[in-house]
Fold this sequence. Notes:
The protein is of the alpha/beta class.
Amino acid sequence: xxxxxxxxxxxxxxILNKKLIHNNRTEEISKEEIFTQYINIINSKSGSQKAVLxxxxxxxxxxxxxxxxxxxxxxxxxxxxxxxQIEQIYGILSNKMCxxxxxxxxxxxxxxxxxxxxxxxxxxxxxxxxxxxxxxxxENTIFDWKNSNGNIQNYYIKPMNIIICRGGNHSQFxxxxxxxxxxxxxxxxxxxxxxxxxxxxxxxYIDNNGEIITIEYNKDEIFFYSGLIFELGRYLL
Length: 237
């Protein structure tokens, strides 16, 4: 297990640095190479280990994206990724393949521990981030979606096993930092049907005819991570 963790850490370091050190030389590493390393890590395992590893890698990536977004918001340098666009990209892919995702509005909402499912969050307002952290840092103040006046909008995305937050970003992010809170799912969106027609190669989404599926997005990072999470989700089908 220690060797597996070292491989994950090594891969993540390369994602963060975008560089490869070899024989005292620094070389740029492409997104395709980073993507391939992720897939190779998973394919080096067997059976159910692949799904377990893919699920945990998705969790790590979601946490990275959340904290990256937070740092950009606090620093105010307009480099935020807009994490919720990942679900929008999947929606565009579905439309292009003429396959609508299966969408179910959850009528009987259930309590979910804030730590049970990775939640992709957009903490876009610096003041609200800070105020929510200070509010929920009190050990007696626990985030509970039922006290949010209907502000919580969480879409559970299948098969990737992630939640896309479309409402309640700041309070849920504070709860994630505290690692304590109760949230819920308001909609389930299943994109499993597009896997039979699309794959991601580390650079582009490709259809079964080998053609690039054109999606115009000005955030290369979020486009890359949408594809990486998409392909990791393939192991969870």
